[in-house]
Amino acid sequence: MLATPPLSLYIHIPWCVRKCPYCDFNSHESPVDIPEDDYIDVLLDDFDRDYSECSRREIVSIFIGGGTPSLFSGAGFDRILGYLRRHGNLAEDIEVTMEANPGTAEAKKFSDFRAAGINRLSLGIQSFDDKSLSLLGRIHDGKQSRLAIETALGAGFDNFNLDLMHGLPNQTQSNALSDLTAAISYHPTHLSWYQLTIEPNTAFYRRPPTLPLEDVLRGIQLSGEAVLFQHGFSQYEISAFATENRQSRHNLNYWKFGDYIGIGAGAHGKISFPASDTIIRTRKHRQPNHYMKNTVDHTAQRLIVGEDERVLEFMMNALRLKEGFSISEFEDHSGQAFSAIAKQVDSLNESGLLLLLNQQIRATEKGYHFLNNLLEEFL
Predict the structure, then answer these.
(1) Where in the chain is the domain with CATH 1.10.10?
(2) What is the rounded distance in angstroms from the CA atom of residue 57 to the CA atom of residue 263?
(3) Residues 6+ apart with CB under 8 A from 166
(4) Which regions of the chain carry the CATH code 3.20.20.70?
(5) Strand runs labelled E in 229-350
(6) pTM (2 decimals)?
(7) What's the fold here for domain 7-253?
């Protein structure tokens, strides 16, 4: 029986100064004058329409992503969050995260962002090495990375994530660990430490850089995880590491197959309707101008998630978590009986890829390293 999961809100700001060669997100190089006020008008209308379907359910987290949200002003976010507080049912201890780049202009706004009600920052550091940053097409250098972190701390952000890549072009294990230890020295509460992958429809896909060999990548991964563990970080998802009780609530809701409203150009949403045993996925118009001009309907696509799709989507998300999921979570969030996956779970348990213990299912260490192969069993 389908239950009502927690509800989050994702807000997409589509503009950035320059699109990075590895980026496959819906981001667009910003015009000279970003239409901030006009875009916010549409965002708030978009929220009202989607939230009206959710019976004023409590919103447990907000994530402002992009693009580069920090290109907007503190006053703009004060307007957005003030409206959400007045017209939305926000949890008293709501987590409000904003992605920000370390550029000097953005860092100057951090105090304004904190005053507006943003209580968690996610800084796109990627590396502290100038050469690596240049190869990645980033517009900041290592010095600006450090200054941005120090500015965030000075602005009162005691809960912040640092995005850090490894497996960069020509990167050695020593270089990767140097980046990691530099990040840890600032005592972040969360690290998104992930390997660079070459995605379709990116500049790197058209002109691939020279990446480290597999044995080097494996060495970086294992040695880096050991360093993180030594410094009090626990891995709770494939590329997410956190200090005690500092996991990203917003991302956890995604990975547990929770619900989320997605507003902004290209934003995706997922809403469950237990009364009709229905899960709906939405996608907003991708191009910023198209999204802003479609005042009648901001939604480009609205689909019902089929029962078979629910199983695979749940597994693709929940098995990313180190703790996995409980049988009751599977049944509540997918609306399917455990019998829908029982045979596959038993088989994978016998082969050593999954562990079923006390009604809890998770990937083993072996299964975690071959997650794509494991998930194929649920196709």
Answers:
(1) 323-379
(2) 16
(3) 176, 179, 180, 193, 194, 195, 196, 217, 220, 221, 224
(4) 7-253
(5) 234-237, 240-242, 259-263, 268-273, 278-284, 299-304, 325-326
(6) 0.95
(7) TIM Barrel (3.20.20)
Q: Say which residues have a Cβ less than 8 Å from residue 256's Cβ, sequence separation at least 6.
A: 5, 6, 317, 318, 321, 325, 329, 333
Distance CA 128, CA 145 (A): 7
Say if residues 250 and 193 touch (Cβ distance below 8 Å).
Answer: no
Instruction: Tell me the pLDDT tens digit for each residue of 2-55.
Output: 999 999 999 999 999 888 888 878 888 888 899 999 999 999 999 999 999 998
Say which CATH architecture domain 323-379 belongs to: Orthogonal Bundle (1.10)
The residue among 295, 264, 250, 270 whose CA lies nearest residue 67 is 264
CA distance 27 to 15: 6
Q: Tokens 């609205």 correspond to what residue?
A: 302
- Report the DSSP beta bridge partners of residue 282: 269, 302
The CA-based angle 116-119-121, given to 5 degrees, is: 105
Residue 316's Cβ-count burial label (10 Å; 0-12, 13-18, 19+) is middle
Cβ-based neighbour number of residue 289 at 10 Å: 12
pLDDT digit string, tens, across residues 359-376: 999 999 999 888 988 999
